[in-house]
Amino acid sequence: MKSIAYVVERENIGCMPFRLQYGTSRRTRSVFKRLLLSILCGAGFALVLPEAASAGGDLTPLLPPSSVTSSTVPPNGDSNPYGVAFVPEGFPRFGTIGPGDLLVSNFNNQANLQGTGSTIVKIVANSKPVVFFQGDAGLGLSTALGVLKAGFVLVGNVPTSDGTFTTIKAGSLLVLNRTGDIVAQWTPAMAKIDGPWDLTIFDQGNQAKVFVSNVLNGTVVRLDVAVSEDGVQIKAATQIASGYPFRADAAALVVGPTGLAYDPQRDVLYVASTVDNAVFALFDAGSTKHDGGKGVLIYADNTHLHGPLGLALGPNGDLFTANGDAINADSKQPSEIVEFTPQGRFVAQLSVDPVQGGAFGLAFSQTRSDFVRFAAVDDNVPNITVWRLPFDDSGR
User: Fold this and answer.
1) Distance CA 68, CA 47 (A)
2) How much is the pTM?
3) Neighbours of 49 (CB within 10 A)
4) Within a domain: residue 354?
5) Are residue 146 and residue 27 in the same domain, yes or no?
6) Could you list the residue range(s) of the whole structural domain that residue 48 is in?
């Protein structure tokens, strides 16, 4: 069989305990097959994949990996990084963040109480993160983090007063400007939210569709918003999905519908339902005015899924989800990020920590002519790793 070689160049990295597993797929555009270099710490390799790998092909030493691992802990000691978002091209440059910057939201405070973190940090490679936003103590900033290219950051919060489910509240969505100031706060009544756990944005410039998963009532809402230099306004809030199970969890605080990924070309929203240990597809998600229930089941894999949380659509068309290990845990597969096709075929998986419960938020940057960046947190440490992967606009 003909082999295909990929090469990743080094920027700077500390060694991470990663483990990669491939499926039997012959897809040549798998993102995780490109990440193998970054798994093999301290050395570099040319990938002879995928055919040669399945046939026992060699991995030839060549160059060190291209990835950077950075702390997510701000000066106030917030921990448990959840949300991950890249600042898109076109974002105004006259602020404290700019195009290409990477943001991370923190769910826990310095005492590691869940639902009490109050900071969003800008990641600085090989250095300490810079605080972009710091709100009142006890916010509990969730995985619901996204950036509008007009100059605004959206972040959800699911607060507690003592780190337990007993005191959990419905929370809100905050709208921040490019200097980290709050310009709006969307309440449950305004936005039909109840524990905004994750979000994804379809940004159309002067308008956007914001999809939000609610961990306290098992629903997904679509917010149709107008965007201008003055701010972001909700024009309509529509519940488009429901029926995802949710409950308190001794280790994870709460589990329910989490990761969202939207494909605007097909108008499909993908939903990672943690308790179901499955991923669903909602068709006509950007236009429907009705609740479509859970949608269509596209991926249920008890071998590789262990409580899917964060979800992202990769530049190669595959989906990526982070296993939180609160559901269907497997000590031999800790903290895995799983790559699979929209048709529900397993492609590969990457372990970001040798201990369970480390994987959560992940994101891809916009694809440029020659590369794309992929970022994933390890909230056990806590830190974030960013891989720079060679890619062209065709996804090759």
Assistant:
1) 20
2) 0.88
3) 22
4) yes
5) no
6) 4-61
Q: Does residue 39 sit in helix, strand or coil?
A: helix
Residues 6+ apart with CB under 8 A from 89: 99, 100, 149, 366
Same domain for 301 and 384, yes or no, is yes
CA-based angle 188:191:196, to the nearest 5?
A: 65
At 130-148, the pLDDT tens digits run: 999 999 999 999 999 999 9
Can you tell me whether residue 3 is helix, strand or coil?
coil
- How far is it, in rounded angstroms, from Cα 359 to Cα 357? 6
Tokens standing for residue 66: 């291209």
Q: Which of 47, 86, 48, 84 is nearest to 63 (CA)?
A: 47
Residue 166's SS3 state is helix
Does residue 396 belong to any structural domain of this protein? no
CA dist., res. 354 & res. 338, Å (int)? 15
348-388 pLDDT per residue, tens:
999 999 999 999 999 999 987 778 899 999 999 999 999 98
- 162 backbone dihedrals φ, ψ, rounded to 5°: -140, 10
Token couple for 142: 């969730």
